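Pipeline run #58 for the internal structure catalog. This entry was flagged by the ingest filter as a single-chain record with no existing model, so it goes straight to prediction. Upstream metadata was stripped on purpose; only the residue string is passed forward. Reviewer on rotation: M.T. Logging verbosity set to normal.
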Amino acid sequence: MPSVAETFLFSRFARIAALGLLIIAAFSAWRGAFTTGVTAVVCAAMIWTRYRAEIADAGKRLIIAARLLNILFLVALTPAILANTPGLAQWSYIFPLSAFALWPLAWASLLIAPYLLLVIFAGLDTSLGPDRHQFVACALLAVLLSALFVFLREYKTRQLAPLRRTDELTQAASRDYLSADLHKEIQRSEREGIEMAVLLIGLDIHRGIALPDDDIRAILPRIGRYLHSQLRDFDSYYRVADLQFLAILPGTNTEDATHKAEVLRKGLRSLLESHELDMTVSAGVAGLNIGDDAESLQQGAARALQRAQQQGGNRTQSFSAWSGAEATNPRAEADPDD
């Protein structure tokens, strides 16, 4: 997921670019250049739907619309390139870059293959005159520059991957940093003599019920935003599984953490219901005790969550390290109205 700065910059780019293309479309329609106007409108829609779908975390419909517009754009280029003299439309050089920019590498390579064949045939066609050599050189240069663009994009992605602490969908911190961060918080709590707890919250998946993957994927960004709005600035939360989040609560005892988990559980249940998803939420809580480390604290929260789900879900469970068993907080019983 892009960082806050990247999101802001892309938002500005999307708005300005879409507005500029709409102005071009209006001017082209006024001058009678309807093909240019339609192309500008399609490009503006591509930019805006991609922004809304990937950055603003919109629903599945906009994601489908963005993909359809990408297909429409490339399909529209094909007859334009093949019109009149095959391959000699100079603006067709944009085709390789568009393919690599809009589609994954494998699909883009399949799209480029017929384009390269067209370039070769144009270079062998003596009826096209000496200009064909210039076209072949420019077309191959366009493909080379597109390949360089792909290389730089992949290189940047791999270089920045270790620096990205956030999950792509939910903006939760990556689980790769959980153990290290939790170890630091445990050390700080022991050093300063303050309490600490962790809570693990997850959606209940019951046997025999098909999981609506697309709907869940669409709701995950909203779950992440909800958790972010409900936790304190110095709390941290992580996406530890597809449908599970772990939060570290410094300065919080087990009872208060259990109450907080119950508030989050009810809030997430309401969020799911508002999107017509009939799913329940459970939570497990574990407080820091003497001798605990990052691993044992996570295991305690996981055992509490597992126990809550084994009891039917839709409840919050706390883990007691002293008894080696789970204990349910009286305020955290399953709601009869849920």
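catalog note: Residues 131-160 form the longest helix (30 residues).
catalog note: The CA atoms of residues 52 and 58 lie 6 Å apart.
status: ready for reviewer M.T.
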